[in-house]
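FAQ

Q: What does a record look like?
A: Structure on top, sequence underneath. For example:
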């Protein structure tokens, strides 16, 4: 069915017409379109919780991994610089749970703000809010509950880390609006998603360091790489409704930009590893990371949404390669 054009200026206030709302409604037990058919939420979660877990993207865990991995970078590279201690075990567990909760809270906030835009995009119409599975009020309550649970975990870290954790609220709050005023919303996502590199470095070492800053910047470049690939799934719909992305900005030049982001991410990660005193295993881990990103660029078919999603999901494996290198280096 052909969609009607949407006014680019008034998208924030655009409300779906009743006929459109009826067409977009999905049954409560229907999966979100881009969720894996074998996801645990739709298979095992209680029926009453499924809409809320879908809202948190629990049925699509790749985002939690991409939020968690910069935390792992910081902890394992911190161990390269200063050795391991038992506190690292809690930091890894706390960061993993915190990533799950904050990703859920952030996605809920994003979906509240984007509910009318999501209703206009083929891939996102089945999300819980535009499809009518969850009300805006219930989503706000769910978001606050997740954020408070994450804050309780943050309170177990040192005072400097708590401060950095509180500061992370700013980029998380701003990100959903970025696509409305800049062609670079992926940069804002990178600022928010890689904050864990700074936070966990401070939590593990007690203070900010240049290695952490290099690691954070490497993460932002990496996010620009993988989220540009992801954004190509919605390129046509985004152009129609007037929201912006690097996929639309780069267009046919996307592959060249991906090579640039790969080179930048690898160079900055190498700076971080060297500054932290990393040896050959750390450097090899970063090199393997770069090779995986290069493989993604060669593999992805930018004009094929299925290919973009498949390559995007492989980003978890790319991000874990430096973790393996840092762990080996810290143990040698």
């Amino acid at each position: 069915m052909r969609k009607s054009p949407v006014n680019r200026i008034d998208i924030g206030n655009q409300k779906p017409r009743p006929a459109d709302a009826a067409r977009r409604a999905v049954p409560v037990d229907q999966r979100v379109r881009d969720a894996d058919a074998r996801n645990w939420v739709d298979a095992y979660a209680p029926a009453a919780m499924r809409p809320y877990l879908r809202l948190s993207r629990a049925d699509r865990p790749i985002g939690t991994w991409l939020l968690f991995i910069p935390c792992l970078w910081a902890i394992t590279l911190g161990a390269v610089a200063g050795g391991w201690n038992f506190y690292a075990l809690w930091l890894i567990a706390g960061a993993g749970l915190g990533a799950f909760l904050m990703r859920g809270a952030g996605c809920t906030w994003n979906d509240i703000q984007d509910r009318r835009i999501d209703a206009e995009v083929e891939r996102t119409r089945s999300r819980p809010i535009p499809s009518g599975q969850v009300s805006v009020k219930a989503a706000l309550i769910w978001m606050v509950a997740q954020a408070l649970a994450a804050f309780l975990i943050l309170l177990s870290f040192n005072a400097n880390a708590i401060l950095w954790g509180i500061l992370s609220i700013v980029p998380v709050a701003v990100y959903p609006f970025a696509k409305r005023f800049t062609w670079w919303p992926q940069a804002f996502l990178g600022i928010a998603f890689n904050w864990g590199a700074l936070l966990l470095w401070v939590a593990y070492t007690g203070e900010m360091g240049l290695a952490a800053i290099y690691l954070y910047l490497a993460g932002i470049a990496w996010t620009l790489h993988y989220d540009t690939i992801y954004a190509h799934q919605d390129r046509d719909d985004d152009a129609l409704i007037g929201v912006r992305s690097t996929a639309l900005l780069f267009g046919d030049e996307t592959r060249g930009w991906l090579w640039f982001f790969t080179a930048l991410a690898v160079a900055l990660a190498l700076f971080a590893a060297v500054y932290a005193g990393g040896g050959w295993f750390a450097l090899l881990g970063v090199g393997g990371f770069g090779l995986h990103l290069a493989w993604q660029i060669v593999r992805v078919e930018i004009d094929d949404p299925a290919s973009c999603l498949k390559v995007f999901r492989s980003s978890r494996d790319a991000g874990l390669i430096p973790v393996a290198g840092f762990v080996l280096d810290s143990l040698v």
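Q: Is there anything notable about this one?
A: The chain has 18 helices and no strands.
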